[in-house]
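In keeping with the milestone schedule agreed at the kick-off meeting, the structural modelling team has produced records for the first pair of proteins. Each record is given below as a sequence line and a structure-token line. The laboratory manager (R.T.) confirmed that both were archived under the project's standard naming scheme.
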Amino acid sequence: MTDSEQPIDRRLEHAILDLLEQRSPTASICPSDAARAVYRGDDDGWRALMEPARDAARRLVAAGEVEITQAGRPVEPAEARGPIRIRRAR
């Protein structure tokens, strides 16, 4: 199965992990980075992928792959309100 044939949730998970791999070990990304990486158009349609990207991050937290942070501190995914960042699990 090619990357474009994978369900959107799996593509977002892969995008999050790939983006983090390309950055320094302490770097973080915004869910919008993953949404933009997965979206195929050249308009702002990536915005519709924001909540699915946040959901993908939550699944990766549950798998022990990443942490969701606010103000540089890890937060429980269910408690996160407003803007979040995603970083490798520490």
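The second protein of the pair:
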Amino acid sequence: MNGKRTKQSRVVKTHLVLPNDTNNHASLFGGILMRNMDEVASISARRHCRTEVVTASTDSVDFLHPILQTDSVCLEAFVSWTGNTSMEVFVKVIAEDLNTEERKIAATAFLTFVAMDKDGKPVQVPGIIPETEEEKKLFETGADRATVRKDRRKKSRELAEFMTTKKPWE
């Protein structure tokens, strides 16, 4: 099989949850987590293709457990599936209570990136070689997610054609 090992695109980044990053429930703001997910996912995509990338979509973000001020938050990202010029990046978020050592999957996400050349045109990306059971499972189910993405994008374009660009007060 031609391609790069999944682990070659792996990115791991850990943060403390600070008071300025929390909402009125003393849990991490979802928007801050999403920014950090996009950051690690884009690094992962660039490691895989070694070109510029653009975020094509955030396919899903599932918040499974709140991330509290007593937690550290570890984001792990890797390319889980590739198309011709696009890459699906899986992001797993692990919250760890620093007082009790309890760890839990707090969120998961799939983001899609397109590899670009110096002129801003899409370029082909290498395939991936999954090795762990987790990587293999995500790879095996990647084509189905790509089909859903393609259909959703088509529907989004159709809806956008229907929408107005007028100012709300006009």
